[in-house]
Amino acid sequence: MTYSCLICQNQKLFKVYEQGSYRIMKCPNCGFGVLDPYPTIEQANTIYSPDYFDDKKSPDFIKDATRKYNYVNKHLQASSKILDFGGGVGDFVGVAKKGGYQLYAYDVSTYAMEHVHKTFNIPTYTPPLSVDLFSKSQFDAIVAFDVIEHLPNFREVLNFFYVWLTEKSEPKQSGKLFMTMPNIDSWDTKLMGKYSYGYKKIPQHINYFSPQSISIVAKEAGFTVDEIKLWGFERSLDFVFSKLKLERLRHITHQLGIANLTFYYPMHDMMVSLSKNND
Ligand SMILES: [Zn+2]
After folding, report:
1. How many domains does the chain have?
2. Which of 63, 125, 147, 189 is paired with 110 by a 20 to 30 Å CA distance?
């Protein structure tokens, strides 16, 4: 099947990964990788059952949310209005609420949004998603952590974000958009090739951005790229060894009483920091 790159329309893509009936095809020009076959929005949305979120209830995820919050917090004015887009059960909301921000949450999962509303008492929203869901310039910042790699309509969603973010007018700064996502050009993916951890989330991950391809899409949507930063995750030794199926090492860490020791692995992801460009 011939595909052209969703970002730069280059026609010559090459296969970087194959699993069952799925392939990841990469563009040598802009670095973007695409899942083949590519799902419709309806197909993509069927994945997010309550089980999907129950897997993510772990203290390690709160540590991830805190690290993201600390980054975002440096760039925002006090009591900013923040939309957490696709934030699931609200790890980020829980941390950011303590910082005095006014928070709103949207997620495709009704289950997740009921949980967030009950736990944090903030306004929550579920599909249908349209530009009218929020008003023009409603938010000082939008965070979409680990979301864009799941969205078949990522261009449309970036356009919505642009509309919903504030315009620069003293004393207000331009609206900020913060996103994390896997980086297909990360050093570990280059090193591991088809064994990369980044290719193991099929079919949930359908877009595989590189710093170059996310910059192209962001600029097309009207944003200025402020920073693209190496990002990662914090996990316990127990979590890492169990995911890698290294049971003997896992057993040893338990014997030594260090199974819950956590480390930060800054490798596979990137934090993309953007501003609404009013020019
Ligand atoms: Zn391309």
Report:
1. 1
2. 63
